Amino acid sequence: MLDGFNTSEKEVAVGVEVKKTQAITRTVTDEKVSRVRVTVGVKALYEQNSQGDTNAATVTLQIFINDTPYSVTFNGKYSSQYLKHIEITELPPVPFTLRVERVEADSKSQRLQNGTLWASYTEIIDTQFAYPNTALVGIMFDSEYFNAIPQRNYEIRGIKLRVPSNYDPVTRQYDGLWDGTFKIAWSDNPAWVLLDILTNKRYGLGQRLGEIHMDKWALYNVAQYCDQLVPDGFGNKEPRFTCNAWLTEQKSAYELINDICSIFRAIPVWTGTELTVIQDRPADPVWIYTNANVVNGEFTRQYSALKSRHNAVHVEYLDKSDFYQKKIEYVSDDELIRKHGLNVKKVTAFGCTSRGQAYRTGRWILETEKRERETITFRVGREGLMHIPGDIFEVADNHYAGTDIGGRVFKSEKTAQEWYEKKRRFK
Predict the structure, then answer these.
(1) Whole-angstrom Cα distance, residue 95 to residue 69?
(2) 68-76 and 57-65: which strand pairing?
(3) How many helices (H) and strands (E) does the chain have?
(4) What is the pLDDT of residues 169-208, one digit of tens each?
């Protein structure tokens, strides 16, 4: 409930001149209407005599609710439009008609100005309204201080969502081991924003996916990486990744999931039993492949084209220090620009309101394209089924190195002690 705002009003414009020979009629059909406010008036109201003096004049209108009349009299001297509001509380059952009639005859003289009009009527509903799942603000002020409805700006945190029970979203600290349970709190950690979108049954995928099919433990590791403090470029520290997005319209679930994952440099992956995320972050290799454990001992190499490797990035973001206006953060590799010429890439950093985060996004794109220029393709046996996208492994290619740098042990008749002694001799 919102105290002080216990009515709902809908103004319906009429804007028709009321003449003696033609009454104006409108119909009200909403059964929730409690009161009606009728706005009528005069275009001007005065009478000039033969000496040129301007005097007051009188004109009367009648407002009918079905057949019940309400009289409105205008008496005075007005050189421009003048309106009155008549509120009628005793209403018949809907549908009922509103009718406005003029009592006096229409003026045919330029000396008498008493044209009448029906400007509008307002349907008023008296009740206490509930606004579930809504952030609502009500402001009342005296209209004499403003010539129009003033523009208002609000800085909001956003929706509350589920976060780990051992997590303080304000300090971004995790207390001890997590038992897998959640609590409700506000957080801008993109990992928990993603979980909310995936599991919420009102506006997310909760009805289809269900929490049991989401790898919350992988998200927990991702969230800790997002919360680590890094330099913001201005002498302070800030979280590595945050999400501050305003979703105002329906969007493809697949597109939205990928947008949120892009904040923390990850991709969503369905493992066959659950949905998890694979994040691009420092990690150790999980396996080594040599010519001995790939099909035909072959590694095929391909290299990215020079035109696909950008040396400058325009990152679009919403600047929280400037009322969340759209800004462009320019990130460049000046050495590559001098060497190959300017090659710009334009991206939009989803949910980004920090200039530092926008810069890190651009720098990551440049470094990724600069360093990851080679693609190695090979085929393996059943052991390859243990990998998931994002796994890091090493390649020991004898042909590429020009010498034997890897292989497979088929059989050994030496004891562990003999291998140890041999190793000592080679040292």
Answers:
(1) 17
(2) antiparallel
(3) 7, 26
(4) 999 999 999 999 999 999 999 999 999 999 999 999 888 8
H or E segment and range at residue 196: helix 190-199
> Residue 360 phi/psi, 5° resolution?
-65, -35
CA atoms lying within 13 Å on the CB side of residue 418: 4
What is the per-residue pLDDT for 414? 58
Instruction: Tell me how far apart the alpha carbons of residues 118 and 61 are, in angstroms, rounded to a whole number.
Output: 10
> What DSSP letter does each residue of 233-256 carry, written as one string?
SSSSEEES--------S---HHHH
Dist CA 240 CA 218 (whole Å): 17
Which candidate, 318, 378, 377, places its Cα nearest to that of 349?
318
Parallel/antiparallel/unpaired status of strands 287-290 and 393-396: parallel
Extract long-range pairs of 137-146: CB within 8 Å, 24+ residues apart: 138/2, 138/4, 138/5, 140/4
Q: Which two tokens stand for residue 168?
A: 């303080």
Q: What is the pTM of this model?
A: 0.74
**Helix H or strand E encompassing 190:** helix 190-199
Give tens-digit pLDDT for 106-160: 999 999 999 999 999 999 998 877 888 888 888 888 888 888 888 888 888 899 9
367: Cα within 13 Å, side-chain hemisphere: 7
| Separation of alpha carbons 294 and 19, rounded Å | 95
Cα separation, 135 vs 158, whole angstroms: 9
Show the low-confidence residues of the chain (pLDDT under 50): 421-427
Rounded Cα distance between 218 and 266, Å, is: 11
Nearest to 197 by CA among 250, 132, 140, 237: 250
